Amino acid sequence: MRYQISGKQIDIGEALQTHVKNEMGIVMAKYAQRPTDATVVFSKSAHEFVCEATVHLSSGLTAAAKAHANEIYAAFDACNEKMDKQLRRYKRRLKDHHREWTEPVELMGASSYILAAEGNNEDSEPASLQPMIIAEMETKIPSLSVGEAVMQMELAGAPVLVFRNEGKAGVNVVYRREDGNIGWIDPR
């Protein structure tokens, strides 16, 4: 498994990196069959340290966790516990007994845009109704079943997920509705 351990404007020592690799390796060995890579980012927010971890599995799923604590090791340990709990809850769903994953999930390239409206006042009417694009990046769209897409969205804690439907080979969207249920958009 590849690890990318970094800090946002803080120095990450060798001892912390070793601790992260050892502890996260234990959790991944217990619950995830073939993790491909893990990204762990440490930052500081006022007096607290923040640890954000993302693990990509060969099945196409992404698990993410975030935790805060007064000490950097405690922040990682809390984040690692959340990851452990998340993978433990979804272990049965991660293990699809009807299908063996021999290769990683196929990914399709796509562009992703971040949009921002002009002006800071929300009450004022903008001169133009066109938002300004402030960031553009490449992203990958996984090829998943609808159930796997819902699980991926829940594991990542995301409100929406765009994916290519394996059954119909079209682009679909799953999202969390305001009533707490899951919505599925399948354009025909």
TrEMBL record:
Residues 130-183 form the Sigma 54 modulation/S30EA ribosomal protein C-terminal domain. It is found in: Cytoplasm. CDD domains: RaiA (cd00552). Its main location: cytoplasm. Keywords: Cytoplasm, Translation regulation. InterPro entries: HPF/YfiA_ribosome-assoc (IPR050574), HPF_long/plastid (IPR034694), RHF-like (IPR036567), RHF/RaiA (IPR003489), Ribosom_S30AE_C (IPR032528), Ribosom_S30AE_C_sf (IPR038416). Belongs to the HPF/YfiA ribosome-associated protein family. Long HPF subfamily. Required for dimerization of active 70S ribosomes into 100S ribosomes in stationary phase; 100S ribosomes are translationally inactive and sometimes present during exponential growth. Associates exclusively with 100S ribosomes, which are dimers of 70S ribosomes. This is Ribosome hibernation promoting factor.
